[in-house]
Each structure stands twice: as C-alpha cells, then as structure tokens.
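Handout, section B. The chain below has 1495 residues.
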Amino acid sequence: MAASERGDAEVEEAGQVFLLMKKNYRISRNVRLAWFLNHLHQVILAVPESELVQSDSELEILSILPNSWQPDEPVHPRPYLLVPSTKVTFLARQYRFVIELDLSPSTGIVDDSTGEIIFDEVFYALSRCLVGLLKPFRIPGSDITYQPEIFVTIQAYSSIIGLPTHQVLFQGCQLDETKTESFLQQVYRQLCAFENKVAEMLQQQYEPRTQMDLSPLNQERLCDPQEPSGRKLGVSMVTADVGLVSMIRQGILALQLLPCNSSAGIIVITDGVTSVPDVAVCETLLNQLRSGTVACSFVQVGGVYSYDCSFGHVPNVELMKFIAMATFGTYLSTCPEVEPSSLDLNVYHKAFLLYSFLRSGESLNPEYYCVSQHRLFNEHLVSASSNPALAMRRKKHTEKEVHADLISIISVRLREGYSIREVNITKGGTQLEVKLVLLWKHNMRIEYLAVSPWPLDPSKRSTWVEVTMEGSYDILHDISCTMRKPITSLYRTTVIRRFWNTLQSINQTDQMLVHLQSFDNVPEHFTIPESTRNGVPLFYIPPGSTTPVLSLQHSSSDSSHSQFAAYWKPILSMDANFWQRWLHMHRIVILLEHDMPVPKHLHTPGSNGRYSTIQCRISHSALTSLLRDWSSFVLVEGYSYVKLMRSSEDLPPFSFYVVRIISKAPCMVLRLGFPIGTLAKIRNKIVEELRDRILQLRFPHRVQSKEATPKVKRKVLGSSSPSKSPPVPGAQPTLSDRPCLIVLHKPLEKLLIRYDKLPSDYRVPCLLPLENPPMSGPLTMVANRTASSTLASLSRYFYHQRWIWCVQSGLVPALPITAVAQLLSTLTEVRLSEGFHFASSGDGIINMVLELPMLSDSSRNCGSETLTCIVQYVLFPPHSTSTKDSFSTDDDNDTEVEAIEVDMELNLVTECWVEPQSGCVDSSSDSWQHLHGLSYQKIPKALFPRDLMCIHTILAFEYISQLCQNKDWVFPACHPKATATEGRDTGSGSRVHEIPFQFDLMKLLPKCQQIEMFFLMLTGAEDDGITKDSSSLPNEMLLSLFHGCLQHDLSDREITLSGRDHVTFMEQVLQRDRDGHPPPFMLPVIQADPLKSPVSLEQQDPTGAYHSVGNQDTATSTNAQQTSDNMEGSGDDISPVGVSENLFSQWRCYAKLANPQHLFLTFLPATFSDIQRLTAYESENASKESTPSQGEQELETEGLLPTVSVTPANEIGCEIGDPDAAPRREPHISFSRQVSQPDISESCRVRCPVYVYSCSLELLREQMITPKPEKPLRDIFFRSQSVERPTSAPWLDPKHKEVVSYCTLLQEHSHQCYVKGLFKSLQQGHSISCPDLLIAMDYCEELLQEMDITSFLLTLCSHVRSFCEHHHHLPTSLERETMQASHGRGVLVSVSSAETEDFSEQDSHVSSCPAQESRQSCCPEFPLSLLESSQPCQAHPDLHRIIQEKFLGISSLHFKPVPSNPHYFFYCPPSAKKEVGRSIYFTALGGALEGAVCH
C-alpha cells in the first residue's frame, strides 16, 4: 500500500478530464458515473487522435488538464491521477437541440439599452447561438479540433390562440457551418412572415365589430363562449405562465422526433417575461426533462428591466436560472459575438455542448438567483447575506441502510434529476462519500448522502444513506409544523404535500432497487415453475381491474412458487412511465397490419348505430406467439414477458429483462427494460434481434392480400375466422409476402392524432389553447393532460390541411348511405395502395399513417442519420348539415335513414397531418413515387389529386345512376368555372379548403372502357339533280330515328353536354390508345398564336390526375393540343379566336343503368351535319397522307374479317374459334353478310360513329386504387358494320357479358332504324341508291310462304299437263315434284302476306286431299329436260304477258318499284302515301316472287 501511495504521489492529479461518448448508441448517465467511480484513484491517459476513429470503447479520454492549467498553456501527453475533485466533462458526437423562440406580445417593446425591438433581438440571439455552436473548437489540452453533428428544430411561439401560421420553422435540420448564412436567411424570412401574421391578428382588436364577426380568423367565441354579446371582441391569448409550459412541452415533443442517439437540449430564447402556473405543473415538467436527460437552457434578450420602456413586463430571472440549474442546463443573460478566428471553447460550446454531473457551489448559493436583479429590487430583501431570514438551513429527514451497491443507488438518483455536489474519500481512504442534491425549488433542496466502503466491492450490496432537507426558515417551518398548526393557504398546502411526496418517493425508489438487485441472490427468484415453463401465464388481469391475480395453476401451497410469484408481481406492477429510474429503456414502435376483409361498417354506422373498428387479431396473435416462444416465461399474456439472461445454459441467469406491450392496437409499443448495469452492447444486440424477428412475421396465405380484397373474393376470404390464432410457424407450409407488423422509427403513439369526439365545426382548424387558463384559482391546472390538450399541442406542431368535400345539395337526388360508405372505402383503399397503414379507428374516425424516408442536403453528403417523416391521413364519417343552418355536427346521429334528405348537405371531411421534417422525400417505392423529391409542405398537395379524382369519379357515377333512377329530376346546368380545383379557402390560414362537387362527365370517360362502333348512313343517288339540302334529309331522318330509339328504348336518361364537352370528348377519343387502328376523324386545325405553347389535356387539368390513355399519331396529337390551347381561355364559349361554333361537331349522350354497379354511356353525333363535319375533317387529313386507309385496306383484304379488334386483359389462353359450336342464327338481326350484298368498300360511304362507354363501378374503383394496373382494360373496336361474330371471341368473357348484350341490342336497333329510315325515305319520294337498298335487304328477315300452284301449272303449262296426262298422276304428286324441282333450281317461292288472300281457294282445295299423298309410294319426278322441248308452253300466244301485266296491275295498287333498282318494290298504298305501317314490305320479281319483311 505504501508503494502504491508513493507511486501515486509521483503522478500529477487531474484537474479536468474530457471524455468522448460513442456514437452508435446513447451512453446512459449511470455508465458515465460508473466510469468515474471505477477509475477513481487510478492513473488515466489520453487516447491519441489517430486511435479515436478505430476505438470501440463507449468512453474515450480526449484530454486531461492539470489543476493549475491556464488556457494558453500547452499540455504534454502524460499519465494523470483521477481524484474525487477532478471535474469530468463529457462530449457527444451528436447533439439535438430544440430552439424555442418566444415571440409573445411582450417582445414587441423596445430595449432602451440597444434601441432594438426585442422581437428582432430574438433573431440576433438565434444567429449568434447557431454561429457559436457550429464553430469547430479545439479540445482544451490537446490538438484535436472537434465539430460534432448538430440537429436542430426551431419553433416560433406566440401566445395568440388561433394564429394561422405554422409555428415550426425547421425540424431535424442538420447544421452545416458552410451553409449557416443561407439557413439563417430562411429563418429570417419565416420570422418576417410570422411577424406579419401576428400583426394581422392584433390589428383585429382595432377593427369595427361588424368586420370582426366576418373575419374567419377570429376564434374568440371558441375560447370564451360566455362572453357577453355587447362586448367588443378581441384576440385571445394565453397567459405567460401557460406560455412557458407550452414551449417546454413542445420542445419535449420535438426532441423525440430528432435522432435518439444524441445528447438532447432545449434552448429557450426569451425576454424572460414568464412564469409557471403552479408547483404541480412545474414539478411535472422538471420530471419529464430529467427523465429524458434534457438540459433546458435559457438565453435572455432585452437586457434588464427598465421602468420607462418595459410597460410592466418584468423578466423572471429567478425561474429561468432555477429550471436551467435543475436540468443541467445553462442560463445566459447576454449573447456575445463569437471571435471568427478563435478555436477556443466559446460561451455557447460551454453552455450547450459540455455535460458534467458534478455541480459547483455556484448554483447552490442563493445569491446566484438574485445577483442580476440588483437594479430592480432592494438587495436587502433578496440577498441572504443582508437578510439572515433568507439563509439556508438544514434538517435531517432520515438515515438508513440500503441493500444495494453505491453505483446503482447514485445512478437512480441521477435519473431522478440529482446532481453530484461532491465526492470524498474519508476515514483514511476506507470510505467513499458521494453527496447529491436535488433542486426542488429555488429556495428548497434535498440532499442525499451515500456512503460505502472503499474500494468498491460489487458483491457487497450495502450502502448507508442520509436524506437532509435544505431551505429557508419559513419553508422548513411549514414542512415541520403542519401537524401542530394546520395551514389554511391552499397553495402552501399543495407545495408541502408535493414536497412530502417527493421525500417518500426516495424510500420507495430505493426499495424497488433493492428488490431488483436481489434477483440472483435467491434461486427461487429465477427458478421457473413447471406450468409457467410450459407457457401458462404467471398472472392474469381480471376484466375491469388493473391488479394482477395469480393464475389458478400456481395457487398451490408450494413455497417456491409463492416466492417466485412474490418476486415478479412488483415488477409487473411497475408503472412504465417510471421505468427509467431503475431500468435501461428501449422502445420498438410497431403498427399491426389489419385483418382482411375490412369491416363493413367502418365509415358508416350499422343498424345499431355503432361503427366497426379495425381488427388486427391475426397480426396481434402472431406477435404474442413470437413473444411467448421467445421469452423465458409469461407474466401476463399479451401484456408482459420476461427473458432470463444467461452466460451459458448450465449456469444460473445473471440478469433478466422485461418486455411490455403498451398502447392499443393497431399502434403499439414494445418497451424493453434492462436492469441498471447491463452493458449497452448487449442491450442493443438483443433489441436488434427482436426487431428482426418481428419484421419476419408474415400472414398465412389464407389472408394474403397486399391491397384491398376485391368484392368477389371477400366471401371466400371471410370464411375463415380471423379470431383464431394462426398455426405454429413450423406447421404452416407457406406464408404470404404480407408482413404482420411494420416497425417505425418515430414514437407514433405520442404523435397520433386522436379525436375524443367529432369536431363541432369542421371549418375551424384544431388550434385550441394548450391548457385551459386558470379560472377559479392557481391550482385548477392539473399535470395530467387530456386527449384534447394533446391534440391541441400536436395541432401546433404538425402541418395540417383539411378538405371538406361537398357531396350534394338540393339540386341532385338523394345519395344512398351505402354509396357514401363505398366512396369512403375506396379512399381508404387508395391510401392503403400508397403504403399507408391503419393506426386507429373509432366512432367512424379513421387514422392512417405512413412513414416516409427523408433526405436532406447534409445527410446526402455524409449519410449519417436516417431521417423519416410521419404522414397521417384522417377520414371522418359522413357529415350532414342543413343548408339553412350553420355548419355544425348533428349530435343525435340518426343512422336508420338509408339516404340523406334533399334539404341536407352531405359532406365528406378528410385531413392530412404532416410532420414538418426538413428535407425531401427519398422514395424508392413505386407506391410513393408521386411523393419523391417533395418537401413536407407539398405532401398534402400531392395526395389531393388522387382524392379529387376518386371522389369526383365515384360521385359522377352515383350522380348519373341517381338521375337514371329518378327521371323526374331536371338535369342542372353545368358551370365549369364555378370553383377552382382546390376549392375555396375558408379563411383559416389556408388550412381548411371546401371542395364543392362539380359534375364533369368528361373526366369520367377516360376511366371507362370504350367501344367504338360505326353505323352506315345512306349514300343517296348519284346524278339525280337533287339539291344537297334535300339529299341529306333521308340521313337526317335515319339519325333522328336512331336518336329516338336511344332516348326511349335503349337508355334511361339523356345527359346534357356543355359547349366545351363536345371538343373535349373528341380530343379524348383521339388521345386514347387505338391499338394500331386509324383515327375515325380528325379535328380541324386552328391557327393559334405561335408564342403559345400547346396545352395538352393533362396540362389543362390542374390536378394532373385525369389523363388520356395511350399514344396517338402526331397529327392527331397536334390538332388536339392546338384546339385545347385555344379553348383554354374561352371558358364556356366554344368559339375561340373568332372560329365559328359550326366548326366543331356536336354530340348527344345517353345513359343506361344496367344495374346499380354498372351503367352505359352512348355518344353519337347530334345531327347529320355533325357527321358530315367529321367526314370533312377526315377527308382533309386524308388528302395530305399518301396511304390514308392502309389499315382498313388490310382489314378488307383479309379472308376472315374479325368482328372486333380487342385485346382484353384476360385474353391469354382463350381460343378464337370453337369447332364444336354450330353457328346459330340470332333472332331478327343477323351479324352475317348476305350473299346478295355487293362488295362495296365501307370507306366510300358515310359512317356514323357511335361510342359506348362501359362504366363499371368495380373497374372504376380498381383504377382509383391502382392507377397503373398490370393488365389495363383495352378498348374494343368494331371495324366492320356486319360481319359474323365468332362464338367464342376473347371478349365474350362473363365480365363483358353486359357489354356484349348492350352492343348487340344497339346494333339491332340501328339496323331497324336503317330499314325504317330507308323505307320512310322511299315513301316520301327521296332518292335511295341501290347499294343502300341491298344493305337494307340484308338487314331484313325473309318470310317464306309456300303456295300450291299445281292447278295453276296444269292449266297454263303445256309441258306439265302433257307429262301429267302421260303418267296419269294426281295433282298432289305433281305438286310435290314441282316443289322439289323448284328447290333444286334455287328458286325462292314466297309472296308477301298481302297477296295470300288471292290464293286462299287453291290452298283449301289442295289441303283437302292430304291422305292421297301418302298413298303415292313411288312417283316419277318431272324431268327438267322436257321444258327445253319444242312443244309450246303456253296455250295462248300472249298468255305470259297477260299474266305479268295482270300481276303488275294488281301490285301497283300497294307497291311501287324502287327507282334505283326496279326489281324491288316497296309498300306504298295510294291512300296514305307517307304512312309507315307496322310492317315494311319489299318485293322483287325475278321469275318468281321474292319478299322480305322487317318488323
């Protein structure tokens, strides 16, 4: 021992030691203390700079200074002796600071010492602080130049309630010395904008009452509803004491969003005009700061108090100094400039970067708190040296022995906020005394003395402790004499009670520490009972209780079981909020993935009036199963688990750690608690392993679905009960790719936006006072905050945008609640497809969360820290308001009605909360691609277009559906320029936007499947001398018939098109993907201003959400863009730059509701003139091209012309033809071309384009959810008017059954209209060409009527009569032979029904002998060669001519020949020449009668 003492005497004592903490994880306070006590009275040596980079130690010595060291004195590296008086200073590699700028109204005064407004001095102080912090500095006593990473969040605080500006100026910005100037300029610009907003708010106090009532920024009524109506309204402000509480709480919140492996600090730049409401709030704030190792510092601006300029605003220096000293912070009364060239530690480095648990006597001297106020007060009243009554007195409270080691006891005290006053080795070097002190108030302290034998022996867990109270005489008297003389003051009683609670908590904390440290002393504490080892939880918590109860399986009389349960029950009962006193805490924030399918009544209430909630049973069961298998035993199932830590399997455990599940699903937190002394390396390794195992959890295949479950599959997936636990992973053959849990970086449970009730007024943002101002006294404010105050605090921090979607008004039919629920469900699925996850649900309010990776300039350069940004998306339930009343919620929530009443206005409310993280989104995921590179302010704007597209698309569908079902409703006029895209601002600082629903059919069409069809028009006769106007009358008649069919037979409602819709529709047709087909028409080229750039359809749409599909040829694109460019500035006027309205074709639209989930929209030109315009566009364009119809020529030359050219998503594997399927004839209308039709190229005749849009609600929702599907729906093109349809074409899928049926019906009616129009034109004397007539004949059905002309032939034909007389055959046999011969020659024997009465006598005569026909078993056939014999046929020379003349004479009474083809006759009675009967008849004479009819 003597030798050791002589050796120590030769080593110089260290005066100050600088230690550098490891970067990978945070170094706790007890690790720092343990280093000091373990190296006490030992020789230490500084680590060379070259070894620092490769070092893996948690603490490295940077430099050692001797006691007598001077700043300019060089220090040579040599050993030093660490003694109790050595000051140990710790430096971190990373720091995080929240700088609070106090911009309350008291900063609006002038500082008479500088002549500046204090508001401006706040910015000057911020600039000097940041410049000083960012300066590199040389570690004293070494050559190491050090510059740590510093992350800052800057907040501007104003006491004005309802200030619309965002108060977070920057969050998570990593400071860079080279960019300090530009950073400060950005801060200055935001402060100027902040100042302008404050000025606008304050100016309202001087405005007249009427104007104030109209001001949307005035929220006085929210804060003081009892205010008399006659009083002038003003701006509401919180008091100064609440202001300090708000700033510190905001700072604590902001610190949790910065990198956690760093030293934390809050810097409040203030004029000091502040206070705290009461002792309870003050103590709660201090405990929060101390538990998080947050140093709260104050930088005062404005100088000392001035009677002339301060207007009663007195700085509370005493409070600022006390809070700074109590939290290891610093109080700076001035902000000096920093020398640019100096590398020494400046005042800001010393104040904010250096940490030491050893406090000097300065902070413990009462004079410290009043030395700067000598100009304001009489120093005899505040100075203890002048006033003995203020001198500190001491009184011992208790002394006892604690069975725990000294390092653990002191570590617990440090975690409670104690600082070390002094460390001494007494009694000849055999006893170590550590004296700690807790600053409870500025004039009240608690001293804690811990004594243990020296040197320290960890195996001897025994420490003697003494607790002493220090304070002025008056407070010690109140504490000691309350029993004999009760105190009537409520405030003094509360202070005394809180102080006694603090004293009692010392004993309770020590007892729990002793309990934890006795783990390895008694084997029964870690000997797990058999039933517990088999998975039975040790305790259970009864419903409605919080007290754990021992499970029945363990309620035996076995003493070992009782000891085991008795040890773990206090650990189970520990409040997780105070774990940090005894345990090293780690957190894993997780989001449970929801079960599929999503509940039905998630957004709208069920029949019982209640909403469903998101269920996460499968993922929660997977998590608890993992923890159960991974832990050593279960304390309470689903709540708390324990894992024993062993160095080897055959040795008893040396420690343990506890896992507790906190919060409510889906957002949950796993808290891991390790006893004090567990190595940080071991702790972090365990946490990482558990996190990896959690990330590996997957859903079983039976519930696999990355997106929302399709409607047709929900019954299949819903058959399995989600409440059952998933099988053991070993028994499950395969798992899906869908993870069960999402691990987050940020503490989401503290950031989650939760509404305890629906907002009373959605137009007012959530800017409420952080705390209710005290009304009845100073003690009304409690430390525990409610959900509303938490929401109010978050609302001031997050960037907030809310949209109110006005669904309907009295102009449209009632919208069913089911449709509204489906719309909200679609919005939910859109968010899920973007990567959002459910975070909470209740009362119809759904919160969805997405954590985005962010990248800043500094992190891009160094790649140090992963930054993330939390985005929250909230969906409110449908909200009904009366159009006559104010915008307020309906409290009774009547859920039984199936549709909203017409006089009510239905609103959907969505909102987005974004964490104001600096940087830009750095996304590699496809679902986040639209957010890549955006700052946090632009994220809500990026989400808005998809919401707008989704809501307006679904509402447009429902709107048309309701119009089809309610035909009495008048279609309202459209006003395209009614509102802007993002709606009107409600005046709440552009936080709340109202988006009225504007029906726009053109934005619905690009999302529907298009079927392009062409119906032939009449060509007219050539060279007939008819004027052009009269030649178009047949086509006008034909088109009007077709419009009549659509209006009355094929549709439910005609949709009125606005003037701009006609051009937009044609542009969209040309811009769709035509799959190689030539465009059906061209738009006219309008000579636009060459300086104007073409505007495409995407550019016209401000949201960018509505886009045309596919590509088009250059000419079409140019024409469409030029037209679009000219139409952009015209609004409703369709005549831009002097172009006539007749330049563009007009269209009509008809809607047909096939079923509530599917409707058809049919477009066709309004008049024949519009068709001619389209043809003119096409011919003009065709004259400029070399091969205008090459595609059509190729199609015409093919042997088998396909009916359609379509490639649907499910065409793979479909066969084009079915060899076993026999062709069957469709009723009335045939798709096959008759042989009699001549080969006429369709390109030579006028065709009427018809466009059918298949609007399926299911397909619309799929497009909303996945804007870029893997297999997009392709359009269908009918390339020929009537070609045979394959019986198993790929588009005859069941999904397209309704489309096929509707198109077939449409084509059938078009054929009918063609025949009717042609027949009507013939009756009215219009000229019809022969090809038109032949096409009409093809469309008609043939009526074959057989007549017995045996007697006729026997009488007139000599050949037949001679043959009959020669063979003596009966007429009936001859009739059969004649019929067979006529069929063999291909003669069609039929007449029109109009002539059947002339032969009724012969028919009855022939039919009277049917029995004879069976008796002729072998009848020789009439040889056709006899007709060629020289025998004359007619008995009379002019018999044939007479017969023909007689027939023509009879038929001319009812039929007339078609002028272009005299072989055909049309029905035209003389009495009603223009009448169209029920049936239309055409006849032709060609050796026999040929007739056709079309019904």
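Note. The CA atoms of residues 771 and 786 lie 9 Å apart. Compare this with the example in section A.
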